[in-house]
Amino acid sequence: MRERPLILVVDDVPDNVEILEMRLKSQGYDIATAGDGVAALEKVRELLPDLVLLDVMMPRMDGVEAVKRLKSDDTLPFIPVIMVTAKTDGKDVVLGLESGGDDYLTKPVDHTALTARVRAMLRIKALHDTVREQRAELEAWNGKLEERVNAQRGEIERVGRLKRFLAPQLAELVVSSGGDSLLESHRRDIVVVFCDLRGYTAFAETAEPEEVIGVLREYHAALGPLVTRFEGTLDHFLGDGLMVFFNDPLPCPDAAERAVKMALAMRAAVGERLADWRRRGFDLGFGIGIAQGYATLGRIGFAERMDYTAIGTVTNLAARLCGEARDGQILVSQRIAAAVEGFAALEEIGNLVLKGLREPVAAYNVGGEN
């Protein structure tokens, strides 16, 4: 940025140039000169002056043609032009202004008029420069804002995808930590909760489809908020079957306790609906199985649809315990029982022979909290 304005004086008469140069330098301006319209255009493109004093009558290219070309050049910023003419015919003045001149002076140039009009044109130039700079800043800000909006939109979409299987607070934490890597395939000790409705198959075979959909909606509406409340990871729900696990993708130091507390809350929530369903002739019950063990976890699916799941014996064990549970029972494995015996009332069921497992499994029923 210049310390002092630069003015280009264009005239083919050296004496005229010298007079204008002397007067303008006395006002604190820097001066450049040219002897005709062709040289003037070259100087303008080279120096980008803040103002041009342009004589009308010149060889090679007169001032009218020069100002036309200057103003039509889109590569140049706004540069005000004062036409300087010895002609007193009003038509010549109008021609110069219509060609793009911003103001005019007649020869001999009056010093006071010169000073006033130069200052006025430089103020206009300064305003144009300010507007141009502000426009550039605004465009830059808009570009940054658009980038931020796109980034936030992408983050919202990522959170939305993660909320399909994670509690909202966990989904947001995974995204904010740049945690897609947390969802890559890995092995971890987890607690798995599996639950479903007793008598659902017979109910679905005999009830109207609208009734089945209605019951499932009420059922999922009762259990879904509890998965979120206890910050479990929703593996899947298929019909009446629901699988949730804890301690992944983020560590959970009280995974077994949290899983049992969620199961108790689920039993109470579904219990409130069972009475209504039975009044409507739907003979349904509710059972839960909980187990702890190592599983391999990660994303599965394809580009348009991804899920996050756990694979391992622990998931089968939780599902088999659920299958053995009678209405109202929460059957847990021995590891879970040992982890929650301090706050939960446990009833030893004994060893169960479960499908798909070689050895009998010790099971316990959770009656409630101590």
Description:
The chain is an alpha/beta fold. 48% of the residues lie in helices and 26% in strands. The protein has eleven helices and 13 strands. The strands form two sheets. Strands 6, 7, 8, 9, 10, 11, 12 and 13 form an eight-stranded mixed β-sheet that branches. α3 links the parallel β3 (51-55) and β4 (81-85). α2 runs parallel beside α3 and α5 (111-162) packs across α6 (168-176). The longest helix is centred in the middle third of the chain and has 52 residues, at 111-162.
Task: Give a topology summary.
Elements (H helix, E strand, L loop, with lengths): L5 E5 L3 H13 L3 E5 L2 H11 L3 E5 L7 H10 L8 E5 L4 H9 L4 E4 L4 H52 L5 H9 L9 E13 L1 H7 L2 H21 L3 E6 L2 E6 L8 H25 L5 E18 L2 E7 L1 H12 L5 E4 H7 L3 E9 L8 E9 L1
Parallel strand pairs: 1-2, 1-3, 3-4, 4-5, 9-11
Antiparallel strand pairs: 6-8, 6-9, 7-8, 9-10, 11-13, 12-13
Structural classification: alpha/beta
Secondary structure tally: strands: 13
Low-confidence stretches: none
Mean pLDDT: 88
How widely separated are the two ends? 78 Å
Proportion of beta-strand residues: 25-35%
**Alpha plus pi helix count:** 11
Largest sheet at a glance? 8 strands, mixed
Overall geometric form: rod-shaped
Estimate the helix proportion, in percent.
40-55%
Oligomer: single chain
Gyration radius over CA: 42 Å
| Order of H and E elements | EHEHEHEHEHHEHHEEHEEHEHEE
Output the keywords.
370 residues, alpha/beta, eight-stranded mixed sheet, five-stranded parallel sheet, 11 helices, 13 strands, rod-shaped
